[in-house]
Specification:
Elements lengths: L1 H23 L4 H9 L3 H25 L8 H17 L5 H13 L3 H28 L10 H30 L1 H14 L7 H11 L6 H28 L8 H14 L8 H14 L3 H29 L4 H9 L23
Helix pairs in contact: 1-12, 2-13, 3-4, 3-10, 3-13, 4-5, 4-13, 5-6, 6-7, 6-9, 6-10, 6-11, 8-9, 10-11, 11-12, 12-13
Length: 358
């Protein structure tokens, strides 16, 4: 196990260094610094504030997805969200995705497992929203009269189509699982027979996880959830657009939808704090599609990354201290070595289920 952990750490380090080398290839660091110094401070502050505004919007959507699980107050959900996103930046394996439902369960008494299911659903809704915005961008693009290479646009269209099919397949899968709990129950009993140590523990977890997917069983509620996801990602795109304008990049607001799609891919690369992946994705998007000089793209990527991640890390750390959570404690929770994990144990606060979807 220790050897496997060391190999994983070595792989992540090598991947991070490789991406940074790709990102900084041919860059004139003196010119990069000049671009950063001459960026509009006012627009950068606006970009940071817009980015921070996305977290309350996320909470509005999360509380809606949590309705079948239980009614939660806005402040605890916002606290859990900011702690979770801050932790995901600095801790491996996206620990914040597990921490969010844990903090919410501890504060509000809802099922941690069901809350975690809504986090899984959020990721699928995020992908759908990003693809919808990418589709809007592609519909308005004319490769013959714009600064776009036809081959690059073709690649984006193909990639977007594959991602859209994948997202729809995941949504259908979640809907099937939520709508046929008996299938999950049979599969769970089979696992419990094969792994006796899970007997009596796995079934309650699966049942609560299915409860968290209740939204996908109702088309009307699912449509509202998608509708809440679009303005969220339009706000994220607005922050990116303002940062691009701060560096005098000629990018229309709709162009930020394309940049968002690239950044989603970059952030998905398993490097600490999305270092390297975020930077390279932004650089490729603005240089390949908008002809931004490389040094300006490098400076913009560095500043945008800092604006996107440093504030939430600082806020998340302060809220963690307020909640009495240490880094060691968070690592234990993410690794599932603690009885209070979001997987849902008897040590967690009692489940407060809603009587119905109101």
């Amino acid at each position: 196990m220790v050897m496997r952990s060391h190999l994983r750490a070595a792989f992540i380090l090598a991947l991070t260094l490789l991406l940074l080398a790709f990102f900084l290839r041919g860059a004139d660091l003196a010119q990069v610094w000049s671009e950063m110094r001459h960026a509009s401070l006012g627009l950068l502050v606006a970009a940071m504030l817009v980015n921070l505004a996305t977290y309350p919007i996320r909470v509005v959507r999360w509380r809606y997805l949590l309705r079948p699980v239980g009614r939660v107050a806005f402040e605890p959900a916002l606290t859990a969200t900011m702690i979770g996103f801050g932790a995901s930046v600095v801790l491996p394996a996206r620990a914040g995705e597990f921490l969010r439902p844990y903090v919410l369960a501890r504060r509000e008494g809802v099922s941690g497992t069901a809350a975690f299911a809504t986090v899984v659903l959020e990721r699928v809704l995020d992908l759908l929203a990003v693809l919808l915005l990418l589709g809007v961008f592609l519909l308005g693009v004319d490769a013959q009269h714009g600064p776009f290479a036809a081959d690059a646009l073709r690649s984006v269209r193909i990639g977007g189509a594959v991602a859209a099919l994948t997202a729809l397949a995941l949504l259908v899968l979640l809907g099937v699982l939520a709508g046929h709990p008996d299938w999950l129950a049979r599969a769970t009993r089979w696992v419990e027979r094969c792994v006796p140590s899970t007997t009596g523990r796995l079934s309650p977890l699966v049942e609560r996880f299915t409860l968290g997917l209740a939204t996908v069983r109702q088309p009307g509620r699912l449509l509202v959830a998608v509708g809440l996801s679009v303005p969220l990602w339009m706000t994220i795109a607005a922050g990116i657009w303002l940062a691009a304008l701060a560096f005098n990049m000629t990018v229309p607001y709709s162009g930020s939808f394309l940049i968002v799609a690239f950044l989603v891919i970059g952030v998905a690369v398993p490097t600490p704090g999305a270092i390297g992946g975020f930077h390279a994705a932004f650089q490729v998007a603005v240089t390949s599609f908008y002809g931004v000089p490389d040094d300006r793209a490098v400076g913009g990527a560095i500043v945008l990354h800092a604006l996107s991640f440093l504030p939430i890390v600082l806020i998340g750390a302060l809220l963690m201290m307020r909640e009495g959570l240490s880094v060691r404690r968070v690592r234990e929770l993410a690794a599932g070595r603690d009885g209070d994990t979001p997987a849902g144990s008897e040590a967690m606060p009692p489940v407060r289920e809603a009587e119905g979807i109101r």
